[in-house]
């Protein structure tokens, strides 16, 4: 829900020459938001023992992040004043989920879908 709310914020509030834009902090925000989203989904689906074969869970999360990110960017570009569709934001979204999969592996020592259900 927080990811959707962040995409609905008006874009005209930030000056194009401020530090936020200069350091591309919005991309970092996308990375962290979708990383959190991806890690939550990976843990939830792993605990339910969903998609246990091969790369199904990882690929499913990456595809879902791509679709979800593109839909959110398209909506904000069409409906939010001062906001536009930005493919770099979608790339940051997918990178966030990819990082969350690596974090899952480092925390649990296994790929998603391979942890105990309790």
Describe this structure in words.
By secondary structure, the protein is mostly helical. The chain has one domain. The chain contains five helices and no strands. The protein has helices at residues 2-7, 19-22, 25-47, 56-79, 87-108. Helix 3 (25-47) crosses helix 5 (87-108) and helix 4 (56-79) packs antiparallel against helix 5 (87-108). It starts with a helix and ends in a 10-residue tail after the last helix. 25% of the residues are buried. The mean pLDDT is 79.
Helical content stands at: 55-70%
Count up the helices. Answer: 5
Low-confidence stretches: none
CA-to-CA gap between the ends? 26 Å
Mind describing the biggest β-sheet?
Answer: none
Q: How many strands appear in the DSSP assignment?
A: 0
Query: Which structural class do you get from the secondary structure elements?
Result: mainly alpha
Overall radius of gyration: 16 Å
Mean pLDDT: 79
- The tally of domains stands at 1
Strand content: under 5%
Q: What is the N-to-C order of secondary-structure elements (H for helix, E for strand)?
A: HHHHH
Query: What would the principal axes of the Cα set say about the shape?
Result: elongated
């Amino acid at each position: 829900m927080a990811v959707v709310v962040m995409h609905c914020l008006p874009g005209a509030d930030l000056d194009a020459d401020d530090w936020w834009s200069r350091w591309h902090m919005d991309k970092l925000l996308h990375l962290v938001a979708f990383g959190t989203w991806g890690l939550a989904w990976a843990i939830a689906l792993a605990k339910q023992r969903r998609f246990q074969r091969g790369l199904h869970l990882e690929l499913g999360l990456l595809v879902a992040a791509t679709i979800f990110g593109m839909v959110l960017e398209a909506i904000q570009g069409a409906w939010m004043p001062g906001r536009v569709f930005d493919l770099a934001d979608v790339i940051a979204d997918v990178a966030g989920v990819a990082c969350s999969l690596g974090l899952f592996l480092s925390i649990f020592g296994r790929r998603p879908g391979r942890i105990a259900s309790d």
